[in-house]
Specification:
Helix content is 42%, strand content 18%. The protein has 324 residues and is of the alpha/beta class. The strands form two sheets. It has a seven-stranded mixed beta sheet, sandwiched between helices. The protein is elongated and about 70 Å long.
Length: 324
């Protein structure tokens, strides 16, 4: 074990995601098993700057793996986007004897970790976001739970949509990424899916599709709309006016962030949390833990943030073929 790392800090930043608690638990218990001290940093970078820091032991994370949200809480922090805020954060780490920080969050959180590393604090990023929009990894903590939550909700909307012979536009989260929308389109058998990465704003084609399916005898029409496109309510009004078919919008919203994490999110988050501590113990810093080609790996944060990610063309074509 490294002679440099004696105390590890852990924080969650950005949007919460189911499975974050499993990652926190893994960081704490792995660090303790390696003979390290652990400090929990509450409310993300905002809590770091304001020194909302607590000592953590094995009991601190008992009975948390099954809970949604984050026991450390999370917050946005505009101050940490400035050089003064970043420098202050590094100084707070040194004041509290924190040699390394595990940051659980999305790409914005990783930029914060990158900034801390520039000021001499060892940092490791763990991908925690329901959006699945971090390019270096095929898995992000919370996506599996969020997409299952959305899938179950859409099944329920389909039932009432069929009963009333409606068109239903169901808006799912994902920020500017369409992964939740695409997976739900396939899993829920949606007739149409609107993705930020693929939608060409041809609403008339959507209207034509709805009319054609009604002529075939379909009693409902499910459209999965990604958050990055949005405007589901106004879209529903326009579609109803153009087709004469009753159309309703359902925005699933923050319910997708909550709830008990799935087995996959608990297990993968636990492995990633342990991996992050092991990297710090190996004197590594400015790294991101990732899941790629069936293995847990790590990338330089600079390299990871420079990567881009797109919707899989084959999966998108599958959603189109199966919707016919």
């Amino acid at each position: 074990m490294s002679n440099e790392i004696k105390t590890i800090g852990v924080l969650t930043s950005g949007g919460d995601a189911p499975g974050m608690n499993a990652a926190i638990r893994a960081v704490v218990r792995t660090a303790l098993a390696r003979g390290l001290k652990v400090k929990g940093i509450k409310k993300g970078y905002n809590g770091l700057i304001n020194e909302e820091i607590i000592d953590m032991d094995a009991k601190s994370v008992a009975d948390t793996i099954h809970k949604g949200g984050t026991i450390l809480q999370t917050a946005r922090c505009l101050e940490f986007m400035t050089a003064e805020g970043q420098k202050k954060g590094a100084e707070v780490c040194r004041k509290h004897g924190i040699d390394g920080v595990v940051v659980i969050g999305g790409d914005g959180s990783f930029r914060g970790a990158q900034d801390l590393a520039r000021y001499g604090i060892n940092t490791i990023g763990v991908p925690g976001t329901i959006d699945l929009d971090i390019a270096c990894t095929e898995y992000t903590i919370g996506f599996d739970t969020a997409v299952n939550t959305a899938m179950e909700a859409i099944d329920k909307v389909r039932d009432t949509s069929t009963s009333h012979e409606r068109c239903s536009i169901i808006e799912v989260m994902g920020r500017n990424a369409g992964y939740i929308a695409l997976w739900c389109a396939i899993a829920n058998g949606a007739e149409d899916v609107l993705l930020p990465e693929r939608y060409n704003n041809d609403e008339q084609a959507l209207i034509d599709s709805i009319i054609a399916n009604r002529r075939k005898g379909k009693k409902h029409h499910i459209i999965i709309n990604a958050e990055g496109i949005g405007h589901s309510t106004s879209m529903a009004r326009r579609i109803e006016a153009a087709t004469g078919i009753e159309t309703r919008a359902t925005i699933l919203g923050y319910m997708q962030r909550g709830g008990s994490p799935t087995c996959k999110d608990r297990v993968y988050a636990s492995v990633m949390g342990t991996y992050a501590v092991d990297l710090l113990c190996q004197d590594k810093s400015n790294r991101v833990v990732a899941y790629k080609n069936g293995e847990f790996v790590d990338y330089d944060i600079d390299e990871a943030l420079a990567m881009t990610k797109d919707i899989d063309d084959y999966q998108f074509s599958v959603s189109m073929v199966l919707a016919k």
